[in-house]
């Protein structure tokens, strides 16, 4: 049976592949992005996740109920820290909470996080404080008042993982699941940005250990799985899709990259 799905970030990379998979399955696909989608979809709605007014206008332009929201859009660590937090976390949160009431029972939200958020437990208290804010502006004010060690990209993905875990039981009260997919490096148009912000030598070492970087297709599969009925008892989970590098780091086979 055809489903109605929303996909952010369908202009390129993982988001485009996710949208293509849904479309190939006969689903009704709506793209939400600042750019036109890279694959054919049923409709495109302009949405700038860095601007609340743009998000609200996009939500107002949507009609009816949906079966899934896939939050794939994001910006790399080479972007200004405030923009990273706006797009990767706070705007995503604003969109999700504006849309979730339109997702019917049995539906799902899937957030694309990153293995860059692996260390979320070490600053859980700070992440919970940030997520206790109610609006984008309040979140940005908290971030400005509470400088974090490391880069904003890692922190944004840590926060997204914790947001997924915290809010999944809340959304489940209305029959909607929320999970996250955490990729390692992926061959997308912004891979060069990640090489710049995380160190090309680090990413090259990962590719050498695994044999290659991921492709968008490698990540789109887990995203569509978590968005569909076959994952109906998976909720509040951060699924690592990194070719095995996290397991190698956690078991001490290889040292953690300094990113």
Automatic annotation (TrEMBL):
Q: Tell me its family.
A: Belongs to the short-chain dehydrogenases/reductases (SDR) family.
Q: Name it.
A: NAD(P)-dependent dehydrogenase (Short-subunit alcohol dehydrogenase family)
Alphabetical list of Pfam families matching this protein: adh_short (PF00106), adh_short_C2 (PF13561)
- Listed InterPro entries: NAD(P)-bd_dom_sf, SDR_fam
| PANTHER family with a match to the protein in the record | EG:BACR7A4.14 PROTEIN-RELATED, ZGC:101858
